[in-house]
Amino acid sequence: MASNQTSLNQAKFVLPNSDLEQQTTTLEIETKDKDFDYSKRSQWLRAAVLGANDGLVSTASLMMGVGAVKQDIKAMILSGFAGLVAGACSMAIGEFVSVYSQLDIEIAQMKRDKERVHGGGREEEDTNEEKESLPNPLQAAAASALAFSVGAMVPLLAASFIKDYKVRLGVVVAAVSSALVVFGWLGAVLGKAPMLRSVVRVLVGGWMAMAITFGLTKLIGSRGL
Fold first, then answer.
1. Of 12, 89, 172, 182, which has the fewest Cβ atoms less than 10 A away?
2. SS3 string of the chain?
3. pTM (2 decimals)?
């Protein structure tokens, strides 16, 4: 009888410990996976936010500059559309060249490392396997062009259906300001930075870009240059 009680007591203590170890191991694995996924997602999301912010500010500034000398809605929309296409192509080409150059450097470094470790035995096979974890130039180019286009669409859509000149400028500024607040908030969340400071920095920067473009273009246009 005493032997049975001892066995039961041991079972009571061993089983919970085993379950606790399994739960701890599972939680550690899940935490590692979540951290890894978050790290990969944050890099892409941060690049997307920066690209969209670039498209928003540059296209809006271009439209405000043209709007400073021409009140015609057609001229303003065409300038914004040209800025969208040119900017998206420029972003895509620049990102493709940049990422491809980085890819070549990293692959060359991998080959040198494999030669030192394996002596060239499984070098090519191991290098091809590790290539899959490297950034893809085509994906980076497409993502940059898409992000820029999304940002550039904000001022274009805001100005498309408003014929009155002053109201159109005001709506563009309001729409761009709202989008800048959103982008500043996203940048703060992804970068774990102070939210208010990030929003103010992005908002003031966008306002300055539009104001400087509008003011200088107005000045040059008034002088007939």
1. 12
2. CHHHHHHHHHHHHHHHHHHHHHHHHHHHHHHHHHHHHHHHHHHHHHHHHHHHHHHHHHHHHHHHHHHHHCCCHHHHHHHHHHHHHHHHHHHHHHHHHHHHHHHHHHHHHHHHHHHHHHCCCCHHHHHHHHHCCCCCHHHHHHHHHHHHHHHHHHHHHHHCCCCCHHHHHHHHHHHHHHHHHHHHHHHHHHHCCCHHHHHHHHHHHHHHHHHHHHHHHHHHHHCCC
3. 0.70
Average pLDDT score over residue span 184-189: 84
**What number is the average pLDDT over the span 66-88?**
93
User: Among candidates 108, 102, 95, which has minimal Cα distance to 138?
Assistant: 95
Q: What is the mean pLDDT of residues 89-107?
A: 86
Q: Cα–Cα distances in Å, from 179 out to 89, 138, 173, 198, 210?
A: 22, 27, 10, 13, 14
Average pLDDT over residues 122-134: 59
Which amino acid makes up residue 170?
Answer: G
Mean pLDDT across 184-203? 85
Is the pLDDT at 58 greater than 50? The verdict is yes
